[in-house]
Amino acid sequence: MIGNYLITALRAFKQQKQHFILNVLGLSVGLAAAILVALFAKNELSYDSQQPQAERVYRIAQDYSQLGLGVVPIFNYINGTRALEYSQVEEVFALTMVEFTREAEVDVTVKNQGFKLNDLYGATANIENFIDIETVAGSLSRAMSVPNSIALSSSEAQRIFGRTNVVGEILQHKNGQYTVGAVFTDLPENTHFGFKNLVSVEHDPANTDITSSYVYLRLAPQTDVTALEKTLTEKYYFGDFKGRLSLQLHPLTDLHFTAKSPFEMKVGGAKQVVMICVGLSVLLILIAGFNFINMTVAQSTKRAKEVGVRKALGASKSQLVAQFLSESVLVSLLAMTIACVLVELLLPSFNNLVGRELSIDYASMFSVVVVAVAVTVGVLAGLYPAFFISSFSAKRVLSGDLQRGSTAIWVRKSLLTVQAALAVGLIIASITLQYQLAHLQNLPLGYETTQRLVVSEVPVKAAFTKAPTSLVKQFAAIEGVEHISVIDTQLTRSINNTLVPTWPNGEQSQSLTPVIGTSYEVVKGLGLTLLAGRDFSREFAGDWSNRVNGVTTIGTIITESVAKQAGYSNVADIIGKTIKDTGRNVEMRVVGVVADVKVGNAQEASSNIMFLLGFTYFNPTSEVILTINPQYLAQIRQDVISVLAKTANVYEPEINLLSDSYRAVLSGDERISKVVLIFTALAVFLTCLGTFGLASFATVRRQKEVAVRKVLGASRLSIVNILAKEFLTLVGVSIAIAYPVTYWLVGDWLANFNDRIEQMMWVYGAAALVVAGITWLTVATLAFKAASTRPSLILRYE
C-alpha cells in the first residue's frame, strides 16, 4: 500500500507540475530560513552551559544606577573572597584585567622580536573548577600559582613561537620576564570568557579599593540569590553610599544576553535578535504552510474524479487521508532536502551577518529534529487538504454534479489575508527599523569622528605629560598628522572614572559625574563645540594638575549638562568658578563649557562630563588621538607602529579610525536591521508565491468567463481588473488588520530607546501600496495572458 501511495504521489506531482514546484519552492525557502535560525538560536542559548556546575555559578556586579551610571561587572577580588564567610558561597574565582591596571606587562620580546600579548588576564589557581578548559601542556593551576608564570592559548603560542610545545620558554618584558607554565586550547566561541593568555597575579590582602576583577561565586544548591545579594550589599556598602549602591549576582549562563557593560570581555548577544529571528522564521514557515494549504485545496477539483473512483472501488476515507497526507509529507521531505542544500550555500553569508561561526552536523540530534520538523510541517500543512479532498461524494463527483462548499473558499481567502497582513506588518517594521537606526547613527556625539586616528593603550608616562614627550614629538613629525590630543578614555566605550562634585554654591551632587583626563587643546583635538570660555592652552600653564599641601588644583572644561546641574542656566556664568571633589581634596576651576558629549553608544543618556587637564584616576594607559590628512592614512599607520616600538616598547598596537570604532558600536543594531530586511523580503516573496498559485488557479477556473467577456467587447485592462478585484479586496482586509497590530508592536519596540523617532504614517501607506501593487502585478500578469488568448480556443469546446 505504501508503494502504491508513493507511485500515486509521483504521478500526481508529474500531472500538476506548477502546483508541485510552487509548494516545494515555498516550503524549502521557509525551512532553510528556519534551519539557519535554529542553528543561531542553539548557539546563542548554549553560551557557558558547558562550564562545570554552570547553573550554580554567579558573577558579582556593582549597580551604580541610582548614581547616574549603569551596572559594572568588575569587583575587588579580596572583598569577593570574604563572601566565603557565608555558607551559601562554596568557592570564589577571579579574572583580573591586567591591561587596565597594568599589574602585568602586555608587550614582550622573544629573540629580539616584539609581540603584544592579546587579551591577557590574571587568573586565580582554581580556574579549572570554573571553566571547562583543556590543558595541552604543563599545569594550568600551577602556572597560575607561581609568580611570573604565564599560560598561553594554542593560537597565541603558535603566533609567537611557531609551535605549541613551549612550556619553559621565556618571554622578556621591560620589568623582567615570564616563564611559560602551560598551554591550553583556545576557548570555544560560545562562552562570555574572552582571554587568550593568562598570567599569575598577586592580590594585596590589604587593598580593597582597586576594582579590576571579574569575581565569580559558586553557590550552594537551593541558595536564595536575592537574599544573598542583599546580605553582600549590606556588607560592602555603607556610609554615604548606603542605599544608593548595591551588588547584583548575575547567573553565568545568562551573561551572554544580560551583560551589556562596556567592560565585558566580549561583546554579548541580544536576546531580542534571537527572538526576532525565531519569530520571523516561524512566520515564514507559516506562510509557506498557508501556501501549501491554499494551492492544494485550489487544485482539489482536478483530483475529484480520482477520489470518486477510489471511493467507488471501496477506498475508505482514512485510506484517502493517508494517501494525501503521504503526498504532503513527501513534498515536505523533498523541500527539506533542498533546504539543507540552501543552508550549506548560505551559511557563510549568514555567519557574516550574525557574527558567528555556525556549522551543521548531520550526524547529530539536530538532524533528527530537522527531519521531525519537516514531517510535522508536512502533516499539519496537508491535514486540512487531505480531509477536504477525501470528503468528496463519489456519487456527486462521478455524476458530474460536484458542488463545492464555501468552506474551502473561506479557508483560502482567510489564509491569503493573513499572509498579506504579515507582509504589510513586516514592511512597516523593516522601514521603521531602518529609520530608527539611521537616527541613532546621526545623533550628535559632541565630538568629531572624521579624520581622527586613535592609537589605543599607550602608556600614560609615554604621552600624558605636561611637556611633550619624545613619543608625542615623533608623532607630530609624521607627515599628514595635523594635531595631537591625549585623553585617558576610549570615547567609543565608556568612562572609567567618576567623582562626586561639590558645586560652587557648596551643594554636593547626588550622582556621580564621569571625568576624562586630557592634555592641552582638547576642544580642538576632539572637535568639541565651545559654548563659553576657552580651550586648554599652554599659555595657561596653571591649568595643568598640580598638588600642593595635599590639595590638587586642576583646570576643567565641563559640558553644558554639568553647568546646568550646578545651577547655571547661562553656562557662561560658571566660568572661573571652582568645583570640588572633597573626597580626594581636588579643586577644579572651570575654564570652558562645551556642548554635551556622548561617550560610548549614542543611546546612552550620560552626557554630564568634566574634562580634567593633566589628571587621571588610576588609568595606566592613554588614548592618543591624531587629527590627520586622510591621504596619508596608510603611511601614518606604519610610522606610528614604528615609533611606538622604538620609543615606548609597544608592539602590535591597536590603531583605528574613530569613525570606524563608533560604527562598530552600532553593529548589533545593524545586524537586527539586516535580519529583518532579509526575512521581510522572504515573507513578501512567499506571499507573492501564494498569490501567484491562487491567481493561476482562479484564472484557469474563469477562462470561459474571460472569453465571453472578450467576445462581448471587454478590453484586456478591464478583464485584468475584474480578476484582480477579488485579491485586492482581500489585501484591503489584511491592511485593516495589520495597521493597528503593527502600530502597537512597533510603538512598544520604539519605547525601548531614549532617543527615538515617531512612527511615520507614510510608511503605512507605502507598505499598503507595495503589497497591493505586487498583488495586482502578480494577478495581472496571469490575467493579461488569459485575456490575450483567442476566445475561440476556449469556447470551441462548448
UniProtKB/TrEMBL annotation:
Taxonomic placement: Bacteria, Pseudomonadati, Pseudomonadota, Gammaproteobacteria, Alteromonadales
Domain MacB-like periplasmic core: from-to ranges: 21-234
Superkingdom of origin: Bacteria
UniProt xrefs under InterPro entries: ABC3_permease_C, MacB_PCD, Macrolide_Exporter_MacB
Membrane disposition: Multi-pass membrane protein
GO cellular component: plasma membrane
GO terms assigned for molecular function: transmembrane transporter activity
Ranges where the ABC3 transporter permease C-terminal domain occurs: 280-391, 678-789
Keyword set, alphabetical order: Cell membrane, Membrane, Transmembrane, Transmembrane helix
Protein name: FtsX-like permease family protein
Residue spans crossing the bilayer: 20-41, 273-293, 320-346, 366-394, 415-435, 675-698, 719-741, 761-784
Compartment(s) where it occurs, according to its Swiss-Prot or TrEMBL record: Cell membrane
Organism: Pseudoalteromonas maricaloris
